[in-house]
From TrEMBL:
This is Arf-GAP domain-containing protein. SUPFAM superfamilies: ArfGap/RecO-like zinc finger. The chain crosses the membrane at residues 136-155. It comes from Arachis hypogaea. Keywords: Membrane, Metal-binding, Transmembrane, Transmembrane helix, Zinc, Zinc-finger. Residues 11-129 form the Arf-GAP domain. InterPro entries: AGD14-like (IPR044820), ARFGAP/RecO (IPR037278), ArfGAP_dom (IPR001164), ArfGAP_dom_sf (IPR038508). One of its GO terms (molecular function) is zinc ion binding. SMART domains: ArfGap (SM00105). Pfam families: ArfGap.
Length: 156
């Protein structure tokens, strides 16, 4: 568990990241002042888009209500809306195509499906992937090792 000082440091970093020009608007609908982070893609999103991301079982955290681990903060520092645009909207023509309006939930849902689920506009290089949450990876490895040890003890 993070110390109070570490939590404050993480919050300060996230608040700073929110002030960067690419992160001042929701990546999906351009609403000002997004207050959520979609940790699947390490993007800043508005309340409307956060709900739609959750419909697709994407993990979303509130900047003001949730605690972020140091690993999550590191991932967010290495990503953010600009990096996500380079990956997921690489082939999106911003001159000819407009992001959905924040008031049109159906268009936002369709956009999120096309961009993040279908990856219709994504870059094709395997190096264009968002940073992973290392804590989640370590947890999975730990569970697998514990399971293997358990079965070895039971069936040995």
């Amino acid at each position: 568990m993070a110390t109070r000082k570490e939590e404050e440091r993480n919050e300060k970093i996230i608040r700073g990241l929110m002030k960067l020009p690419p992160n001042r608007k929701c990546i999906n609908c351009n609403s000002l002042g997004p207050q959520y982070v979609c940790t699947n893609f390490w993007t800043f999103v508005c309340m409307t888009c956060s709900g739609i991301h959750r419909e697709f079982t994407h993990r979303v955290k509130s900047v003001s209500m949730a605690k972020f681990t140091s690993q999550e903060v590191d991932s967010l520092q290495n990503a953010g809306n600009q990096r996500a645009r380079e990956i997921y909207l690489k082939n999106w023509d911003f001159q000819r195509q407009r992001l959905p309006d924040s008031s049109n939930v159906d268009k936002i849902r369709e956009f999120i499906r096309h961009v993040y689920v279908d990856r219709r506009y994504a870059a094709t290089k395997s190096s264009d992937k968002p940073p992973r949450d290392m804590q989640a990876i370590y947890s999975c490895i730990f569970i697998c090792l514990c399971t293997a040890i358990f079965f070895k003890l039971i069936f040995a």
